[in-house]
Amino acid sequence: MLSLGLDISTSRTGYSIIENKKILDFGYIDSSKEEDIYSKAKFVIDKLNQLISNWSIDKINIEDNLQAFSIGRTSANIIIKLAKINAIVSFHLYSNGYEVIHINPSAARKKVFGIIKKDFKLQFKDNKRWIVYLLLKMYGKDLYQKLPKNRKGFLSKNSYDICDSIVVGLY
């Protein structure tokens, strides 16, 4: 069964294509230059249509919307924009006959990695870093080498969205 995992945000969407826990493809769609939610959603939909046309996707797992504020990182306005873009993209995919499943990120992490102890999580600045760490333990250097890097050679922000999409795709 071929799964498309999506981590949709207001500026970029991470995606991954997974089959039997094997990562076949991944990347991101940068919609940051689009001006409003409709043009952002349309841009993402157009790129996803191109991607889907290359694969025989059976189901699409989408990371569920934020449900709470993250101090210093989110606002009500961002959560509303994210929900709207997510809804537009989800409806498009559903109306084109795809099985669309919205997955709570915590449930996906628990299913993929098991229960993570709090003291382990505290070693990292945020969830995104420990998710990358755990995925690299599962998939090794090959995954790390393929993830996008910034100019300094460190993982770019896009890599974190890709890794979130992998976790949702593995669900």
Question: Secondary-structure blueprint of this entry?
Answer:
Blueprint: E1 2-8, E2 12-19, E3 22-30, H1 37-53, E4 59-63, H2 76-95, E5 99-103, H3 105-113, H4 118-121, H5 127-139, H6 141-146, H7 157-170
Parallel strand pairs: 1-4, 4-5
Antiparallel strand pairs: 1-2, 2-3
Helix pairs in contact: 1-2, 3-7, 5-7
The shape, in one word, is globular
Helicity range: 40-55%
Say what oligomer this is. single chain
* Count of discrete alpha- or pi-helical segments spanning 4 or more residues: 7
CATH superfamily: Ribonuclease H-like superfamily/Ribonuclease H
Describe this structure in words.
- The chain is α/β, with parallel strands linked by helices and 171 residues long.
- The chain has one domain: Ribonuclease H-like superfamily/Ribonuclease H (Nucleotidyltransferase, domain 5, 2-Layer Sandwich).
- Helices cover 49% and strands 20% of the residues.
- It has seven helices and five strands, in the order βββαβαβααααα.
- Helix 3 crosses helix 7 (157-170).
- The longest helix has 20 residues, at 76-95.
- The chain is globular, with a radius of gyration of 15 Å.
- The two termini are 12 Å apart.
- The relative contact order is 0.21.
- The model has no long low-confidence stretch (mean pLDDT 88).
